Amino acid sequence: MDTKELLKKVRKIEIKTRRLSDHIFGGEYHSTFKGRGMTFSEVRQYQFGDDVRSIDWNVTARYNEPYVKVFEEERELTMMLMADVSGSELFGTSNQFKKEIVTEISATLAFSALQNNDKVGLILFSDEIELFIPPKKGKTHVLRIIRELLEFQPKSNKTNLAVALKFLTNVMKKKAIVFVLSDFIDDDYQQTIRITGKKHDVTGIRIYDEREESIPNLGMVQMQDAETGEVRLVNTQSKNVRMAYGKYHQERVRYFEDVFTKSGCGVLSCRVDESYVKKLLGYFKRRG
User: Could you tell me which residue ranges the DUF58 domain spans (predicted)?
Assistant: First the structure.
């Protein structure tokens, strides 16, 4: 992709997603996530009606009269976007690839953070960390994130969510609002998401295509695994083959939803041909 074409694409995504974040998501994002963190401000003398649980016993003992800790909302948040760039993201039977929806949702969320004067960072992952952009504020920074989402070429086609979550836990010492955007065609990440979910406010956004749920009867079809490159001849006439295909997909979805929910994380699923605007808004409202 040449620079001119890339800039045009960035601009197009900026116009579309910024309008969404300005008019719709700004307020919703703000009310959903603002004030989740409380930071210690000062101690003052106990007043009638204060919560006894906020008494600072060390200061109280020193001055022989009760003092309470005063906390205030942490106004500034840090958003981390974690986008899956493995081979399976370049799949789509409708008008858009999963990768394009991931980019649009990420851009919408990034502009919502920008509007609220929050920092935003990016992790692109496959079965390794492909790119890490530390959280920063500002429009130039958000545009750089969009540019990377559009043109980044991963070294690997495979997926390992556990590796990505481990990396996040190591680099982000303070609590962050984390959005993981993937098709979640992976397993063995329950241990890492449990640890990540305790430390951060995590939402998994599953992007999928209807053809991943079931395959039609098309006779003998040559299929390629987007992540391993393996090519197979598949008999889609066979009812057993079609059932096994659907079962595999259902198991991955169930695993994702169970593991995320049990770890205290949010879950959201969006098909490429559906309106992600409605899905995100509904999710923010439920959480607000």
Answer: 42-250
Tell me the sheet residues that pair with 108.
none
Dist. CA 36–CA 170, nearest whole Å:
21
Beta strand extents in the chain (DSSP E only): 38-45, 67-73, 78-84, 119-125, 129-136, 177-182, 201-208, 220-224, 231-235, 266-271
Q: Map tokens 């059932």 to a residue.
A: 243
3-state secondary structure 180-212: EEECCCCCCCHHHHHHHHHHCEEEEEEEECHHH
Q: Does pTM top 0.85 for this prediction? A: no
Are 91 and 212 spatial neighbours (Cβ–Cβ below 8 Å)? yes
pLDDT tens sequence across 250-265: 888 999 999 999 999 9
pLDDT tens per residue across span 90-134: 444 555 788 889 999 999 999 888 888 889 999 999 999 999 999
Locus of tokens 């929806």: 101
Give me the amino acid identity at 207.
Answer: I
- Which are the contacts of 52, defined by CB distance < 8 A and separation ≥ 6? none
Q: With contact defined as beta carbons under 8 Å apart, do 185 and 176 qualify?
A: no
- Give CA–CA dist 22/245, Å, rounded: 41
Whether the CB-CB separation of 214 and 246 falls below 8 Å is answered with yes
- Whole-angstrom Cα distance, residue 94 to residue 29? 29
Helices H, strands E: what count in the chain? Answer: 10, 10
The rounded distance, in Å, linking the Cα atoms of 186 and 24 is: 32
